[in-house]
Design a protein that fits this description.
alpha/beta, TIM Barrel, two-stranded antiparallel sheet, about 40% helix, globular, binds NADP nicotinamide-adenine-dinucleotide phosphate
């Protein structure tokens, strides 16, 4: 399985990362823990060494399931990411809290749930505007000195927020949203990351399942997609039709639509890793099948034009405007 260097983090990872947000019942409803554990073990067998979780996924539950899945796998071959941001109240409510004592406490709790001595990559889940940036960076530096985290990064930051953080600390990775349907960050965040060699691991590359091609536009959802605009009415149907129009290109490369979406996402030179949200062994096997594949420049732009946002189209392979 291919490996990529994640910016200047020193981490060598598979271009597909196993995403575990699906273990958050508040968003995704109840998932089978057995399926999740089997899927993580299969991921390792298929060469996926990168797992993304957060203390917020099921308020610690996601991390515990990761801990269970990896306990018998070779530690040195795995790269585990988790995130910190929230203060969790006993009644289930949360608020942002990246103050030094709280981060140190949350890091200890994450290590315990994951069954690890070191978190390979520790991310600030969001931007906390109340805590001075130097305090956050100082805390993370101490955790690194203590060997509790190896590399640090951020998620859900604008390019200006990332720039500001990097003036205070050694943040080498960002985890932003990105999909071919909504390719955010291409005019600001991604060029900045490319020029500064910041590792980029994008989340929701399958647009929360839409880019797998398995929906027709008539489905209803009893998870958070039941109130997500892209999964409602005419917009849902229109997006599903656009995704189906990818099939002839996918067929030509003997890829599934899901794999084609991952391949095209990873062709962006700023993007190192696509984190796919996985519920079952079948889903990770399909995603793993995209690694190492590529499509032509002409087909890349065709894919972008078929499912991308409306408006001026990207230049095609001949440099003309469509
Ligand atoms: N940093 C952050 O704030 C943040 C935010 C969101 C996500 N993330 C991370 O990124 C990961 C991925 O993002 P995401 O979960 O939003 O979206 P995603 O990867 O775009 O979509 C996940 C959904 O795609 C479907 N799927 C995945 N593989 C499939 C396959 N091979 N065949 C058919 N369906 C497949 C599943 O849908 P069904 O449910 O229909 O089976 C799954 O729930 C998360 O798990 C999490 O680790 C981070």
């Amino acid at each position: 399985m291919d490996r990529v260097l994640l910016g200047e983090s020193g981490l060598s990872v598979s271009p597909v990362c196993f995403g575990t947000w699906q273990l958050s019942p508040r968003f995704w409803g109840e998932q089978s823990k057995d399926d999740a554990v089997s899927a993580m073990k299969l991921a390792y067998d298929q060469g996926i060494n990168f797992i993304d979780t957060a203390d917020a996924y099921g308020d610690g539950y996601g991390e515990s399931v990761v801990g269970e899945a990896i306990k018998d796998l070779p530690r040195d071959e795995l790269v585990i990411v988790t995130k910190v941001f929230n203060h969790f109240n006993p009644d289930g409510s949360r608020y942002p809290d990246l103050t030094p004592d709280h981060v140190a406490e949350r890091c200890e709790a994450s290590l315990g749930r994951l069954g690890l001595d070191t978190i390979d990559l520790y991310l600030l889940h969001l931007y906390d505007q109340l805590t001075p940036l130097a305090d956050i960076a100082g805390t993370l530096e101490r955790l690194r000195d203590q060997g509790k985290v190896r590399a640090i990064g951020v998620s859900n930051h604008s390019v200006e927020q990332l720039r500001a953080q990097r003036r205070c600390g050694a943040y080498s990775v960002i985890q932003p949203p990105y999909s071919l349907i909504d390719p955010v960050g291409e005019s600001g965040l991604l060029p900045y990351c490319q020029s500064e060699n910041v590792g980029v691991m994008v989340y929701s590359p399958l647009h929360k399942g839409l880019l797998t091609g398995k929906y027709t536009g008539t489905e209803t959802f009893d998870d958070f997609r039941g109130y997500h605009a892209d999964f409602q009415g005419e917009r849902f149907k229109e997006l599903c039709d656009k995704v189906q129009s990818l099939r002839p290109i996918a067929d030509r490369y003997e890829l599934t639509i899901c794999q084609l979406a991952i391949v095209a996402t990873l062709m962006h030179p700023a993007i190192h890793v696509a984190i796919c949200g996985i519920k079952t062994p079948e889903q990770i096997a399909e995603a793993a099948g995209a690694v190492g594949r590529t499509i032509s420049r002409e087909d890349y732009f065709a894919v972008r034009n078929l499912v991308g946002p409306a408006g001026p189209k990207l230049a095609d392979a001949k440099g003309e405007q469509k």
